[in-house]
């Protein structure tokens, strides 16, 4: 079931399955900004990553002496959400723990995902509620894929990325198992701008940690910003499928990430993991700005 938000500028579509954003359409310039989930390249548009972001070592984690198997990015993206509320400009979805989730993730939770449309801005809001009497440990992240090139004009390597930091950015890479390697590399920019190259994502996502930037823009060949993602996340990823020539780039705000290849700890010890005390709620958001 698709939920639609709409104003004079944009038409937004969200699927109840995964509470996934599936369309950002610019009315005045007849432009699609969000990837259409064509499985030729990638079958998703903007999955919500919960309660894990990225891959776990050996595809499992340990908690209180027990080992649990877990696939990449958790399970919320593949579950049906409830539509809690809907208006022309705002919609809220929720997913509540049940017997199925408790078998693989031993925490009660309520995950709420909201979308608020105002002008050319779309806010994506996350709330994680802990209704239990014990602490819970989780990660959450976004994975929106944006058209690049835009309107099939030119090729991706004609376009640019722009960060709200003029300093060079250090980034990490993941190995073939999706785990963080120890080394970091440097992304040189000119006043925060870097040209997208054909080989930029040959080694998978660029993982940029330590709040080095809080906004990332996609820019046309003349370096004009056409889409910006703003966030306050401690780290983010920039990704496009390696070697496929896929016509999109993901800008991914993360509160959590994959394990390091050298990690041997338990759930509580995972880097960038979040702890939520009994009866507390975690709230955060990011914004997609068109133009």
What does this structure look like?
The structure is a single chain. The protein is mostly beta strands. The chain is 2% helix and 45% strand. It has 1 helix and 25 strands. The strands form 6 sheets. The protein has a 9-stranded antiparallel sheet with strand order 8-9-10-11-25-21-20-15-18, with no helix packed on it. Strands 5, 13, 14, 19, 22 and 23 form a 6-stranded antiparallel sheet that branches. Strands 1-2-3-4 form a 4-stranded antiparallel sheet, with no helix packed on it. A hairpin with a 2-residue loop joins β6 and β7. It is globular. The mean pLDDT is 97.
What's the layout of helices and strands?
Layout: E1 2-6, E2 10-15, E3 20-26, E4 31-32, E5 48-49, E6 60-63, E7 66-69, E8 82-86, E9 90-96, H1 99-104, E10 110-118, E11 121-129, E12 136-138, E13 140-142, E14 145-147, E15 160-163, E16 169-174, E17 180-187, E18 193-195, E19 206-208, E20 215-219, E21 225-231, E22 235-239, E23 248-255, E24 274-276, E25 281-290
Antiparallel strand pairs: 1-2, 2-3, 3-4, 5-13, 6-7, 8-9, 9-10, 10-11, 11-25, 12-24, 13-23, 14-23, 15-18, 15-20, 16-17, 19-22, 20-21, 21-25, 22-23
Find the count of extended strands (DSSP E, 2+ residues): 25
Strand content: over 45%
Helix content bin? under 10%
Main pleated sheet: 9 strands, antiparallel
Q: Report how far the terminal alpha carbons are from each other.
A: 29 Å
Low-pLDDT stretches: none
Structural class: mainly beta
The helix count comes to 1
Radius of gyration: 19 Å
The average pLDDT is: 97
Q: List the secondary-structure elements in sequence, H or E.
A: EEEEEEEEEHEEEEEEEEEEEEEEEE
* Overall morphology: globular
| Neighbour order of strands in the largest sheet | 8-9-10-11-25-21-20-15-18
């Amino acid at each position: 079931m698709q939920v639609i938000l709409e104003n004079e500028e944009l038409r937004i579509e969200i699927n109840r399955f995964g509470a996934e954003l599936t369309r950002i359409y610019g009315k005045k310039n007849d432009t699609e900004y969000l990837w259409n989930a064509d499985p030729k390249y990638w079958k998703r548009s903007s999955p919500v990553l919960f309660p894990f972001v990225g891959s776990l070592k050996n595809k499992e984690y340990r908690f209180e002496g027990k080992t649990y198997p877990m696939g990449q990015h958790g399970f919320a993206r593949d579950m049906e959400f409830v539509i809690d509320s809907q208006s022309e400009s705002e919609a809220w979805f929720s997913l509540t723990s049940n017997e199925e989730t408790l078998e693989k993730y031993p925490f009660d939770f309520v995950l709420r995902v909201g979308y608020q449309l105002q002008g050319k801005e779309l806010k994506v809001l996350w709330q994680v509620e802990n209704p239990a009497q014990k602490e819970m440990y989780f990660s959450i992240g976004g994975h929106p894929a944006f058209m690049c090139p835009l309107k099939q004009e030119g090729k991706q390597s004609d376009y640019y990325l722009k960060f709200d930091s003029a300093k060079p950015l250090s980034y990490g890479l993941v190995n073939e198992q999706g785990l963080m390697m120890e080394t970091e590399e440097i992304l040189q920019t000119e006043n925060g701008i870097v040209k997208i190259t054909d080989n930029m994502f040959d080694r998978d996502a660029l993982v940029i940690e330590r709040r080095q930037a809080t906004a990332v823009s996609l820019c046309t060949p003349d370096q004009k910003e056409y889409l910006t993602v703003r966030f306050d996340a401690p780290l983010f990823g920039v990704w496009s499928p390696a070697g496929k020539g896929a016509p999109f780039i993901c800008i991914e705000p993360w509160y959590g990430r994959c394990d390091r290849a050298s990690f041997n700890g338990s759930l509580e010890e995972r880097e960038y993991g979040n702890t939520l005390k009994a009866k507390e709620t975690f709230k955060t958001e990011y914004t997609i700005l068109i133009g």
